Amino acid sequence: MIPNRHGSSTAYRYGFQGQEKDDEIKGEGNSLNYTFRMHDPRVGRFFATDPKFKDYPYNSPYAFSENRVMDAVELEGLEAFFIHGTVLKIFGGRDSTFMFEKSDDVVKKLKPILGNKTVNTDFAWGGYNSDEARHTAAEQLVEYVLKNRKPGEPISLVGHSHGGNVAIEAANILVKKHKIQANEITIVALNTPMQEDITSINKDINLIVISAKGDLIQSFASESKWSENNNVKNADITIFYDDQIGGLDVDHVGPANSNVREWEPKLKEEIEKRVNARNALINSIKDMYKNMPYLYPDETEKQVIDRRLKEEGFEDSPIIQETNK
Fold first, then answer.
1. At 38, is the pLDDT very low, low, confident or very high (cuts 50, 70, 90)?
2. Domain named Fungal lipase-type: which ranges (predicted)?
């Protein structure tokens, strides 16, 4: 035990689950500052409702981790799930497949860009190169996400190669079968080949596609026609980068650190453009509503803003919301 470093010490700022104490209002150790609300450890309850309480009416909006105080963690904010691609035994199996780790630059760089609070790199699928294997993996990913995600929280899925297709199909299932709001899901598809049987079916899902110029593996694995590009369809943002590795991987390792340094600034710039365009639209609508309210006799200002954002493709995505804070 370290002297003077315990839960009741004034020299120690953190309490239960590593959350920062706020002793000014309710006294020492009686209030813990979580990201979205304050927790009272004396009664084991939050004294504000969960901002996502409407998504799980079966649970008390004031409860801590669905009343599992011994084994559960109160999750905060977005969680990003990373999905590896096809595993080919002839090329060395998993040893030659990019397997995401929390220490990778791609994980550390995408976390703030997507507005994530936590990351999860533990999901693994068989990696077989077949439609059936990818569809099965998508079902497994759905179960994994639902098990590891706090109900109501937005989701980020980052997939490399065919892992991107697994992520896309999983997102489709989450929306269709589990009633997850489409605009709460963000997908990043790295070097992902286009597949006819796997396409993002909801335009409100936020789909970011990142590809290398001249990626031969992506090209050969795509089911696109010669007149089409090899990227997955219905992307909101598409980024192309110059591969920095080459060799046997033929421009197909977008998650590698050297390649992340190539595409990450481009992605940030593109998101910033969308944020600025969205803000400009909102300001324009506010000015119009203020100066010419007679144009909107049956709508409030908020209703006009929401309608115009949807019409222009600026639905409230977690990426833009987080970047705009």
1. low
2. 132-194
Cβ–Cβ under 8 Å, residues 173 and 167:
no
DSSP 155: E
3-state per-residue secondary structure call for the chain: CCCCCCCCCCCCCECHHHCEECCCCCCCCCCEECCCCEEECCCCEECCCCCCHHHCCCCCCCCCHHHCCCCCCCCCCEEEEEECCCCCHHHCHHHHCCCCCCCCHHHHHHHHHCCEEEEECCCCCCCCCCHHHHHHHHHHHHHHHHHHCCCCCCEEEEEECHHHHHHHHHHHHHHHCCCCCHHHEEEEEECCCCECCECCCCCCCEEEEEEECCCHHHHHHCCCCCCCCCCCCCCCEEEEECCCCCHHHCCCCCCCHHHHHHHHHHHHHHHHHHHHHHHHHHHHHHHHHHHCHHHCCCCCHHHHHHHHHHHCCCCCCHHHHHHCC
**Could you give the CA distance from residue 114 to residue 184 in angstroms, rounded to a whole number?**
12
- Predicted confidence (pLDDT) per residue in 154-203, tens digit: 899 999 999 999 999 999 999 999 989 898 899 999 999 998 888 888 88
**Is 0.85 surpassed by the pTM of this model?**
no
